[in-house]
Amino acid sequence: MTSRDIRRGFIDTVGHTPLILIESLSQATGCTILGKAEFLNPGGSVKDRAALFMVLAAEQSGELSPGGTIVEGTAGNTGIGLTLVANARGYRAVIVMPDNQSSEKISLLRSLGAEVELVPAVPFSNPNHFYHTAKRRGEELPGAFWANQFENEANAESHYQTTGPEIWQQTGGELDGIVLSSGTGGTIGGVTAYLKEQNPQIHTYLIDPPGSGLYSYVTTGEFRAEGSSITEGIGINRMTANFRRARLDGAFQGTDLEAIEMAYYLLRRDGLFVGSSAALNVVGAVRLAQRLGPGHAIATILCDGGGRYQSRMFDAQWLASKNLMPTAKGLEFLS
Ligand code: PMP
Fold first, then answer.
1. Tens of pLDDT along 97-120?
2. Spatial separation of the C-alpha atoms in residues 17 and 34, rounded to whole Å
3. pLDDT class for 79, splitting at 50, 70, 90?
4. DSSP string computed for 60-84
5. Least confident stretch, 173-177, 288-292, 310-314
6. 229, 322 in Cβ contact below 8 A?
7. Is 209 in the pocket of ligand 1 (CB under 6 A)?
8. Alpha carbon nearest to ligand 1 atom 5, residue
9. Band of the pLDDT at 1, cuts 50, 70, 90?
C-alpha cells in the first residue's frame, strides 16, 4: 500500500509551519525558546494566512466574484500573499504600497504579477496614505474587493483558527508565554485570544518598536508614540478591529539595534535567517524568559525571512548609514 501526502495547490500549503526550538537562546536563558517558522509559508510570511482567509471570506460573502480584483494597501507581505492567492483563484491584484519599503518587496510583487502603486510614506491623517488610497481604488475599480487587512477580522480569524491551534498542538499545551509584535494586530489578536481560551495562565505580551503607540496603549490605555524604526510591517498608532481581539498581560519595547543584533545572532548561531520583525519578536521572547526565569516555555513568531531585507539589514553599508552595525559577541546587546 502506498501512503500519499499531497497538498492541493498554493492554498493547501499555507500554514502548518514548524515550531523551532532555538537552541542558542534556550541554552542562554534556561528556558525553551520556540519560534514558529512563518517564513516557510509559500509566500514567505505569516501574512499568507490572513490573505487566504480574507479572500475565502470575501468569496463566501459575495464581495469577490470570479474575475474580480483584489485591492490592498500593504507594506508588502500581505500583498505578496494576496497576489499569490489571486493568481491561484483567478483574480487580479492591485497593491498600494508606501514608497519607503525595501526594493526586494516591491520588485517581488511586480514579478508575481501584482499591479503595484507606490504612494508617498505620509502620516495616516493624510488622504494620500496607502490605506486611504487603497480604499479609494477599491471604490473606483469595477468588481474590486478592498481587503482592508487592518479592520477585516478574517485576518485575526486566520490566526485564531490556524496559528494559535498549531502552537497549542505543537507544544502539547506546555506553553508558559508568548510574545508578539503587531502590525494590523491580526497575529497578536487571533493567537492570544486562542491561547488564553486554552489556558488563561499563559503570559501574553506585546513587543513594540519605536514610533508605535501600542506599547503606550497596553501599559497606560493611551496611544503615544515617539521616534521611528527601521523594522517593517509592525508598529501602529491607532486601534484596529484585529488588535482589539488581543488578550495581553503586558508589553515590552525593543530598539532597532536590539532587532539587528538579534537577527545576526540568530543567523550566526542557529542558521536562522529572519527579518526585522521576527528578530524583534525573539528579543521579546528573551525578555519574557528573563522575567519568568529558567524552566519556562516561551514562543514567538518568525514572521518572514531575511532575504526580503538583503539590501537593508543584511547590507553593511546600509547598516553603517543607520549607525546600526551589529558588534555583540553574545546577548549583551539586550538592555
Ligand atoms: N512582520 C512582518 C514582516 C509583516 O509584514 C507583518 C504584517 N504587517 C507583521 C510582522 C505583523 O503582522 P500582523 O499584521 O498580523 O500584526
1. 999 887 888 899 999 999 999 999
2. 12
3. very high
4. HHTSS-TT-EEEEE-SSHHHHHHHH
5. 310-314
6. no
7. no
8. 233
9. low
Torsion of CA 82, 313, 37, 210, to 10 degrees: -80
Dihedral (CA of 59, 238, 220, 232) sign = positive
Query: 23 CA distance to ligand 1 centroid (A)?
Result: 25
Q: Does any ligand 1 atom lie closer than 6 A to the CB of residue 187? A: yes
User: How many angstroms separate the alpha carbon of residue 10 from the centre of ligand 1?
Assistant: 20
How many Cβ atoms sit within 10 Å of the Cβ of residue 316? 9
| Closest Cα to atom 8 of ligand 1 | 233
In 249-302, the DSSP E strands lie at 250-253, 297-302
Best residue for ligand 1 mutational test, from 161, 179, 234 (most atoms within 8 Å of Cβ):
234
The letter for the amino acid at 55 is V
Q: Which domains does the chain show, CATH number per domain?
A: 11-45+162-334 (3.40.50.1100), 47-146 (3.40.50.1100)
Distance CA 306, CA 272 (A): 9
The model's pTM is 0.96
Grid cell in block for residue 189:
489578536
What's the whole-number mean pLDDT along residues 226-247?
96
Distance (Å) from CA 192 to ligand 1 centroid: 15
Decide: helix, strand or coil at residue 105.
helix
Q: Kindly state the cell numbers that stand for 269.
A: 548561531
Q: What is the average per-residue pLDDT within 32-52?
A: 98
Mean pLDDT across 318-330? 97
Confidence of residue 335 (pLDDT cuts 50, 70, 90): confident
**Does the pLDDT at position 49 exceed 90?**
yes
Q: Ligand 1, atom 7: nearest CA belongs to which residue?
A: 233
Residue 18 sits at the vertex; the CA angle it makes with 13 and 260, to the nearest 5 degrees, is 110
